Give the backbone structure.
Amino acid sequence: MGSYDRNGWVVWAEIRTYIRMEKGFCYLVAIIDWYSRCILSYRICTMLDVSFCIEALEEALAKYPAPEIFNTDQGSQFTSAAFTEILITNNIQISMDGKGRASDNIIIERFFRSLKYENVYRYEYKSLPELKMGIATYMNQYNFSRIHESLDYKTPASVYGILLKEVTSNNILVYAKRNQLLKKAV
């Protein structure tokens, strides 16, 4: 199910970004529904490996019906056999951006820009627990409070159909009711 883009396809995207902290970097990976702009899952990690990307993907697939198309960049995490096998097993078409073409995945790139300018650069997090709480708060506000002109002044969660939410420091736990195909949250 998920949300449909203008051509009728259900498309999710996942990409990772770097977040500078007082001592080093953390990495944030997020899965977004293209049409609704709803963040379906995310993870923060200090090591850039495939496991945290897979965790975010598995969480989204456990909570929501699989999309028809899954778009990523060509990073090693997303081209790994372990990651692509999950997509293939769930009959999800794999779409990868052209090399050096951030505009191919502009929706999630734009989300990360907003996150960084509205939250990360503003608060300059010093510790991982502080960063996780700050990002959880931002994700909650973004999905459930922030209206988008492109969504007819609705929130991403309301367009996607999420009715009840709970945010933790590690991920977004959502309970949604869209139709009979919806998977229950774990």
